[in-house]
Specification:
- Helices cover 32% and strands 11% of the residues.
- The chain is an alpha+beta fold.
- The protein has 2 domains: 55 residues, no CATH class; 137 residues, RRM (RNA recognition motif) domain (Alpha-Beta Plaits), CATH 3.30.70.
- A 4-stranded antiparallel beta sheet has the order 4-5-3-8, with helices on one face. The chain has a 3-stranded antiparallel beta sheet with strand order 1-2-9, with no helix packed on it.
- About 9% of the residues have low confidence.
Length: 243
């Protein structure tokens, strides 16, 4: 959809980073305080002041606790503040504004939140025309990992990140290092603060036609297997029906 808009308008659409949970929370707190100020300045509160005083005398409860209870009632079921760990996104590098720093923290699995996850980096990205399905298929097929244990996949300009179970055996990682997508090795490795920077999306080749892509179909290529891998992790493998 974005590529279609770019082609029609002949203008690149630059990625925009969402505000962090901290910034959103600060704004929500400021808005909440402003609502209190507006209510005090513009509303008749006499009847409510009398009700609060009566309630305080009857129950001997601190006025601040009563005010907090009323604030919660006003807020309803939606939490006032976001959990700052819930928003996990890339951010501009402090030392180089032309680079983006990607979060190294893996996200928990939706259906298996108890499984500890680790974030990995693979050496193919948007510049290689990679798609999430290519990554998912490569890992699920070559490492024989059930897709339910493959977490978030995020594609950046220079590389892609994927969240996998922390207990992945070394043998499985070695298999994935040699796995190829579009004839390029995944070269999977753990994402750290040393290898988590990437370039923003390139603009120069957005509207250039690539003749090499005509008449050819891109597909995931896998090398023929030799002997069955005895080291694959049974814990995360796909179950096969018994005959």
């Amino acid at each position: 959809m974005l590529k279609t808009i770019e082609r029609i308008t002949r203008q690149p659409i630059d990625p925009m980073l969402l505000p962090s949970a901290k910034i959103i929370n600060e704004q929500r707190v400021n808005n909440f305080k402003q609502r209190i100020t507006n209510t005090l300045d513009n509303q008749e509160l006499a009847i409510f002041e009398e009700l609060i005083l009566d309630y305080q005398k009857e129950h001997e409860i601190d006025a601040f606790k009563i005010a907090s209870a009323l604030a919660l009632m006003s807020q309803g079921t939606e939490p006032l503040l976001l959990n700052e760990k819930e928003i996990n996104q890339a951010s501009f590098n402090e030392n180089n504004k032309n680079k983006i720093s990607v979060s190294i923290h893996a996200e928990p699995l939706k259906d298996n939140p108890a499984i500890k996850m680790r974030r990995y980096r693979i050496a193919v990205g948007r510049k290689n025309n990679i798609k999430p399905g290519n990554v998912l298929g490569a890992i699920a097929n070559e490492a024989e990992i059930s897709s339910e244990f493959i977490g978030a996949i995020q594609i950046f300009q220079d590389f892609t990140t994927v969240d996998l179970p922390d207990e992945m055996p070394k043998e499985t990682i070695e298999i994935l290092k040699k796995t190829r997508v579009f004839d390029k090795k995944l070269s999977i490795e753990e994402l750290t603060e040393k290898n988590n920077t990437t370039s923003p999306r390139e603009k120069s080749n957005h509207f250039k036609k690539d003749s090499s892509r005509r008449g050819s179909k891109r597909k995931f290529e896998r090398k023929p297997r030799g002997k069955p891998n005895r080291h694959k992790d049974k814990k995360f493998s796909r179950s096969k029906p018994k005959r």
